[in-house]
């Protein structure tokens, strides 16, 4: 029997999705200067409510989490109220939406806030903030144990704020070279305390964030994104797989809503993952619901799900180009190809 991606999917006892096609988290840098979602963002997300689940663009948990201009937040009451308008509009159209909780760690820039740039270790990245080339990245401060405790508490607070803002749950952004991922990779983590050096220690921050969020909103409302194939602002290290092996084994006992791979092209194979693709590696190591992503279209996603490579598909760029992506799939209409110029406005 073949799986129909357009039929409902039960994520768990509390959440049922209207189909298996998720809108991937997509940073658009369009919040107002107080990092509050705008009416244009309300309309943009509402137009995509036919997705099985919308995952919001990455949303910062506190001021020092920011590394790009006008990325929305979830730490002030104005931001919570702004997101409430978005989630109300999505719910009115019959959709569901999770907030992606974000801290960029060492790719934060003090241009955006007062205070230190925090990271696992004082190892900077080359380069500068995209589209703001004058903002060169600085060497971060290695987070103290007290900093780490406050970061964990702020992820939990942001999760609580997300529910207050009407989200159906959250996706913890543990991927793409940002804070949580920095702890998980040897290239960014040279700590010699209980957060570094061994797979168990390097997984500790990720697991403490996951457990703190679960504690506040429940595992059924908590998803996690991971990108074991290090590729963005990070270099590959053959020891990284042992960290993810440990982490995924621990996650197997957490009953998360889902685990989501983070990758732009899921046909890429990683030497550090025993030559597997992101989804192949995650499928083998993780026993819960897996979301695949990365340069899929409807047909390739359907084939992958029917081959049991993952359970749900997240679609990113095609959703930028096609607000009515799901209708087009249902009606077998042609999908408009994505191009980078489309990032200039929200359609
Ligand atoms: C992204 N991606 C991304 N990922 C994430 O976890 N949080 C984010 O905020 C963003 N932002 C973002 C912005 C833009 C403009 C792009 C193109 C991508 C990655 C995205 O979620 C997805 O993994 C990739 O786009 C691959 O999927 P598609 O586009 O091939 O379906
Ligand atoms: C100031 C105008 C802003 C216009 C939108 C910009 C979108 C920027 C996207 C940044 C993205 C982050 C995620 C990405 C990973 C890329 C990896 C190769």
TrEMBL record:
Signal peptide: none annotated. Gene3D superfamilies: Aldolase class I. Residues 5-331 form the NADH:flavin oxidoreductase/NADH oxidase N-terminal domain. InterPro entries: Aldolase_TIM, OxRdtase_FMN_N, Oye-like. This is Alkene reductase.
């Amino acid at each position: 029997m073949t799986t129909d991606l357009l039929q409902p999917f039960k994520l768990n006892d509390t959440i049922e999705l209207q189909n298996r096609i998720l809108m991937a988290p997509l940073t658009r840098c369009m919040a107002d200067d107080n990092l509050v979602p705008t009416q244009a963002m309300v309309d943009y997300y509402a137009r995509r409510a036919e997705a099985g689940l919308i995952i919001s663009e990455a949303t910062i948990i506190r001021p020092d989490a920011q590394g790009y201009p006008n990325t929305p937040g979830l730490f002030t009451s104005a931001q919570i109220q702004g997101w409430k308008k978005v989630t109300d509009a999505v719910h009115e159209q019959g959709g569901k939406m999770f907030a992606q909780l974000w801290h960029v760690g060492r790719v934060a820039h003090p241009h955006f806030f007062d205070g230190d740039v925090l990271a696992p270790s004082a190892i900077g990245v080359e380069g500068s903030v995209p589209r703001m080339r004058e903002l060169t990245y600085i060497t971060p401060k290695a987070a103290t144990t007290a900093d780490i405790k406050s970061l964990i508490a702020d992820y939990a607070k942001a999760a609580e704020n997300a529910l207050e803002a009407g989200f159906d749950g959250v996706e913890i952004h543990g991927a793409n070279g940002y804070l949580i991922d920095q702890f998980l990779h040897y290239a960014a983590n040279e700590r010699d305390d209980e957060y570094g050096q061994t797979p168990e220690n390097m997984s500790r921050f990720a697991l403490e964030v996951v457990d703190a969020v679960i504690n506040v909103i429940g595992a059924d409302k908590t998803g996690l994104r991971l990108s074991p194939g290090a590729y963005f602002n990070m270099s590959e290290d053959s020891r990284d797989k042992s960290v993810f092996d440990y982490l995924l084994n621990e996650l197997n006992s957490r009953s998360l809503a889902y685990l989501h791979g983070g990758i732009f092209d899921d046909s890429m194979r990683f030497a550090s993952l025993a030559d597997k693709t992101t989804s192949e590696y995650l499928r083998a190591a993780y026993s819960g619901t897996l979301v695949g992503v990365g340069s899929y279209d409807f047909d390739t996603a359907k084939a992958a799900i029917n081959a049991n490579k993952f359970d749900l598909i997240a679609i990113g760029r095609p959703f930028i180009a096609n607000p009515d992506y799901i209708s087009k799939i249902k009606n077998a209409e042609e999908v408009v190809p994505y191009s980078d110029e489309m990032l200039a406005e929200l359609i």
